[in-house]
Specification:
single chain; mainly beta; seven-stranded mixed beta sheet; 1 helix; globular; ThiS/MoaD-like; Thiamine biosynthesis protein ThiS; Beta-grasp_dom_sf; Thi_S
């Protein structure tokens, strides 16, 4: 099965949960990450029971507060540390 995680295709041998994908992808600070699957935000309490399907698009988002706004950083856009102001 193939999914897209942070803009990159990832091949998986079997269906995995969102929680398992965080481990597989070695996501830093998983306790602070927000996971979006196919444009839907997955509640943290559902990480272990939400299973990914072939073709799913997954983004790992970090919300940062401070200053005059809140920034959302997508892992796929951290190459040049670009933020999306929400």
């Amino acid at each position: 099965m193939t999914i897209k995680a942070n803009g990159k295709e990832v091949s998986l041998k079997e269906r995995v949960s969102v929680r398992e994908l965080l481990d597989i992808q070695k996501v830093e600070m998983p306790e602070y990450v927000t996971v979006q699957v196919n444009d839907d935000i997955i509640p943290r309490e559902s990480f272990e029971t939400t299973f990914l399907e072939d073709g799913d698009v997954v983004e790992f988002l970090y919300f940062m507060g401070g200053g005059s706004g809140v920034w959302v950083l997508q892992m796929s856009s951290l190459k040049g540390i670009q933020g999306i102001l929400s």
